[in-house]
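Progress against Task 2.4 (sequence-to-structure conversion) is shown through the following example record, which the project officer requested during the mid-term review.
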Amino acid sequence: MKDFVKRALAVSLSAVAIVAGRGDAATPNIVLRPWVQEVQFSGDLRLRQETFAKEAQGQADINRQRFRLRLEADFLLPRQMAVITRLASGTGEQFSTNQSLTSLSSEKEIWIDWAFLEWKPRPFLRLAGGRMSNPFWRTYASDIVWDEDFNPEGFSQSFEWPTVAGARLFVNLLQMAADEDPETQKDQWMFGEQLGAEAPLPAGSRARAAGAYYQWKNENIGTFDQPKTNEGNRRTGTGALQNNFGVLELSGEFSTSILSLPCSIQGSFIENVRADKNLTPKENSGYQAGFRLGRAAIRGAWELGYFFKRTETDATVADVADADFGDGGTNRKGHILWLAYNAEDWIQVKTKYFDTQVINENLPPNADGIRRLQFDVALRF
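Structure tokens generated for the chain above:
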């Protein structure tokens, strides 16, 4: 693999030299550090047409075109270590790498999406530090807490133990540095713990379940200094969270086959067990449940999905939750439906529809029913 990478880089640089008029196509000498065992490159590009239909007076409907580009390079090192990196398009938001086509085709930015060290000293142990992929086991229903594009910064530890009859236990821990605040010397953190199990069932079915607790520290002394704020959550005049957050999540998945098609039935229930009793109404729980039939992962495969979500105002921290549900965040309920098809192993087309309403119109975002339609073409390379 190392020789292949050298040749690929050499060809690329030779082509640049020729185009630039620098003479012949002599192969440059590309040198990788001798301890780099392998370099793996991958990426994806997604084009999206998106439409919003908003019911509230004074709210304008939206029609926009967007793209998402992600480029990943993984450097495998001795002693079961790896440096995982990914660059992505976007505007710097914590939960999106989408970029709208706008501003007279002006240049668009590239951001650091992943930059972390991964170490697997034992088959059952994974340690990571930096800006990383989310270490928690999640289903689609888990975006009630974590947007699928949210990548935490901090440290994580994952353990996995096989048990009898093909079952396994797993533990995932995360210490997330939410925001450094040198002025108050009260940095904001999130400490998460997840315990789960997976077991085979008759007829090729499987069941997975997990319980997690996400404890936020100093979450209401100020904002997280994030570039984008999701709707929902009661806030002070300065934008800081008004409530305390300790979110309990119970999630599960039952996987089976229906007419030879893979089927996944999922659900997540959450409750903010640290919600301030003096804040009324309490508005501190939520759930999401639904199914996925089929799996659009190879050529000719398709997938149908349906979920219903209901998340109250202070059920979880809105600024890391799903950003596509309505305008993103909490205090919203509604339906999610999608259909996807793979024209090739590496090309997928997908249509996704959200029909959402605000739960409590006396709290943010007030009366704001939203219907949202997305059409995607995604390519992996």
